[in-house]
């Protein structure tokens, strides 16, 4: 599943098995769980329409193309350079 997390200073996109899995893993890896203002599950169509900038390769890629599997991982953020 793909999720959009809204924090006070940024938005992050993550993959996880479920919202519970997302929150458990986020809490374990980061100390700012209480900073999360909103968690929204992103549909496959929305993920295919969401374009993120890959600064390493200087190209654009869809959010859908970045997601692989169900392990917890942050796949994009508005505060990454």
* Tally of separate helices: 3
Estimate percent helicity. 25-40%
**Strand numbers in spatial order across the main sheet:** 3-1-2-6
* Residues in β-strands, percent: 35-45%
How many independent structural domains?
Answer: 1
- N- to C-terminal separation? 25 Å
Q: Give the averaged pLDDT, no decimals.
A: 89
Specify the structural class: alpha+beta
The total of beta strands comes to 6
Contiguous low-pLDDT stretches (5 residues minimum) are none
Rg on CA atoms, Å: 12 Å
What series of H and E elements makes up the topology?
EEHEHEEHE
Biggest sheet character: 4 strands, antiparallel
Write down the overall geometry. Answer: globular
Can you describe this structure?
The chain is α+β, with helices and mostly antiparallel strands and 81 residues long. The chain has one domain. It has three helices and six strands. Strands 3-1-2-6 form a four-stranded antiparallel sheet. Strands 4-5 form a two-stranded antiparallel sheet. The radius of gyration is 12 Å and the shape is globular. The chain starts with a strand and ends with a strand.
